[in-house]
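Retry 2 of 3 after timeout on previous attempt. Resubmitting structure tokens to design endpoint.
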């Protein structure tokens, strides 16, 4: 087995563990994290956000909480899909294996959340995770194809 493949297997396992740990956080911890991200977003996109009262800042964070959480889902799985390509490339249909494992992991992750206090497993989250994995996989697929075309032109 090539060292590159071993490295990507290790990275995949590490990233899956990161996803698992985020999912294992109870609802209160997860909510606090989302609000922190919402505050950070507010600092970037809202003029004079830091001059607003803490109450106003929290109101903004709560308002964007749902999109922040869904973007986090998609991003986690986009990264997973990208890393998994490194495990399977150059095997034929490497992108499908990457996507399939990402989707299967998403399903198991949502089942896992059924056992975490205050959390729930949501079919919509599986779809969002799968879309994220698809986007991440497509990005790397396109990059690989462009690099291969460039190599052929050079040779």
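Retry 2 succeeded. Sequence:
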């Amino acid at each position: 087995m090539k060292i590159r493949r071993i490295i990507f297997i290790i990275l995949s396992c590490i990233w899956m563990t990161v996803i698992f740990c985020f999912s294992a956080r109870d609802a209160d911890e997860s909510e606090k994290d989302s609000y922190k991200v919402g505050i950070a977003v507010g600092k970037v996109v809202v003029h004079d956000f830091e001059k607003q009262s803490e109450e106003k800042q929290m109101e903004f964070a709560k308002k964007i909480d749902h999109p922040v959480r869904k973007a986090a889902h998609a991003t986690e799985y986009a990264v997973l899909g990208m890393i998994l390509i490194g495990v399977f490339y150059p095997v034929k249909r490497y992108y499908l294996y990457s996507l399939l494992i990402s989707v299967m992991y998403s399903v198991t992750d949502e089942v896992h959340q059924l056992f975490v206090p205050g959390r729930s497993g949501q079919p919509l989250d599986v779809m969002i995770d799968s879309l994220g994995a698809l986007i991440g996989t497509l990005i790397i697929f396109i990059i690989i194809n462009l690099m291969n075309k460039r190599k052929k032109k050079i040779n």
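Attempt log closed. The chain has a mean pLDDT of 95.
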